[in-house]
Specification:
alpha+beta, 2 domains, 4 helices
């Protein structure tokens, strides 16, 4: 994924408080403006997708352990594999009245998510290398404390494609982006290696909590 992204323009709507960001492939992602910060004559925005993010897991059934759903679970990030199974994934989510979208930076689903139940909860542990490659997406302030903390996911639907089992999941922690309003009044996402990112994110989050 690219280290920065721009919107066509930035015009804050007091009623909707939404903006659209784009990746380098031209895909778009509608986001709510969760908070804003004026710092050093610059404006920063805390953004959260309007629709629920979706990740795809691939797993293998473990014939030796009936208590474990998978012997191994892999987060699918390869674009070609996602494209291969996208139609099937969209079809099974349609059974839940959810619309799967190929949006910028993350797949998303439009519609009302099913009720959260314990049997549909799983924890996904990412190793350090995977955490470092997770682009400029931020998963709440917990990531500031421990990048190795397991990610809690809600399983929406599972299906098979060419004898491979896949699960469509949505993270319980919010997916957040930090954007700078540049001189051209466009939004530029802060790269994960930006030295100011963590400080700005903390200020945005703490200020939001204070307002609530």
């Amino acid at each position: 994924m690219p280290e920065s992204s721009f919107s066509d323009s930035y015009e804050e709507d007091d009623d909707l408080e939404k903006v659209t960001i784009f990746d380098d492939g031209g895909r778009s992602l509608d986001c709510y403006i969760e908070n804003s910060l004026e710092l050093n004559n610059a404006t920063y925005l805390l953004l959260m997708p309007v629709d629920a993010p979706v990740v795809i897991l691939a797993g293998e059934d473990d014939p030796d352990d009936e208590d474990e759903e998978y012997a191994q679970t892999i987060l699918i990030e390869d674009k070609s594999e996602i494209e291969k199974i996208f139609a099937d994934a969209k079809a099974v989510l349609a059974e839940l009245n959810l619309t799967l979208k190929d949006t910028a930076y993350t797949l998303t689903v439009e519609g009302e998510l099913p009720a959260l139940e314990d049997e549909n909860l799983i924890s996904l542990e990412l190793d350090e290398e995977e955490s470092e490659e997770s682009s400029n997406e931020l998963e709440s302030d917990n990531e500031l404390e421990d990048d190795m903390e397991p990610e809690e996911l809600q399983i929406l639907k599972s299906f098979y494609h060419e004898e491979q089992r896949y699960s469509l999941c949505t993270p319980l922690s919010p997916l957040l982006f930090v954007a700078l309003v540049n001189r051209d009044n466009q939004l530029e996402l802060l790269a994960p290696d930006n030295p100011e990112l963590q400080f700005i994110l903390q200020e945005l989050l703490f200020d939001e909590f204070d307002e609530n």
